[in-house]
Design goal:
This protein has 8 helices and 5 strands; from the N terminus they run E-H-E-H-H-E-H-H-E-H-H-E-H. It has 211 residues and is of the alpha/beta class. It has one domain (5-210): Rossmann fold (3-Layer(aba) Sandwich), CATH 3.40.50. The radius of gyration is 16 Å and the shape is globular.
Length: 211
């Protein structure tokens, strides 16, 4: 590979994307690829500190525009400190959430609109759009039944089901608008069944992108 690749994993909370990212990383490492696993918000020290502010239940009064700007600020640091250097070194970067999450959660979920989110992220992106994105198509009601009932919900996870329905609709809109980049994965089966789908698609996509 002359340069690395950037692949993101998207979906509503509980869809299984984090597990699938880990499964794919292990698979690709066995095939000889050098993978970097990261997440948003977070991925580096400064962005992880912003993450703690964003997800703290103590910050329930956060304005939705503040929220959107903080996600964009965390993204600037993450892109410049982690993502772009790793891709330049020929690694495959696998990221749990990226710009699509901001569009779905803040643009659709919060009602700020896609254009607002894209506008503030224009300063953050630095041409770092993913080469491919896996969208795990699992409706919110189904996704939330998969979550550990003992899990302590963060500020975003405590939102209403109506909010998550809007987020899911946002993801579906993104997938419809960008079918060349966004790969829809039916996540209704077991995590192992889903993993087989992801591995097969990822291998072909990586070969196509690298070739």
């Amino acid at each position: 590979m002359r340069k690395g690749l950037f692949i993101t994993f998207e979906g509503v909370d509980g869809c299984g994307k984090s597990t699938q990212m880990r499964f794919l990383s292990e698979h690709l490492e066995r095939l000889g690829y050098n993978c970097v696993l990261t997440r948003e918000p977070g991925g580096c020290s400064i962005s992880e500190q912003i993450r703690s502010i964003l997800l703290s239940v103590e910050n329930k009064n956060m304005d939705c525009r503040t929220e959107a700007l903080l996600y964009a600020a965390a993204r600037v640091q993450h892109i410049n400190e982690v993502i772009m250097p790793a891709v330049a070194e020929g690694k495959i970067v696998l990221c749990d959430r990226f710009l699509d999450s901001s569009i779905a959660y803040q643009g659709y979920g919060r009602g700020l609109g896609k254009e607002f989110v894209l506008g503030i992220n224009a300063y953050a992106m630095n041409n770092a759009m993913p080469d491919a994105t896996f969208f795990f198509e699992c409706p919110p009601k189904s996704a939330f039944t998969r979550m550990n009932p003992a899990k302590q919900m963060d500020r975003l996870e405590q939102e209403t089901m109506t909010f998550f329905e809007r987020v899911f609709a946002g993801y579906q809109a993104i997938a419809a608008e960008e079918p060349a980049r966004v790969i829809k994965i039916d996540a209704s089966g077991s995590k192992y069944e889903t993993s087989q789908k992801v591995k097969a698609i990822a291998e072909k996509r990586i070969a196509d992108l690298a070739g």
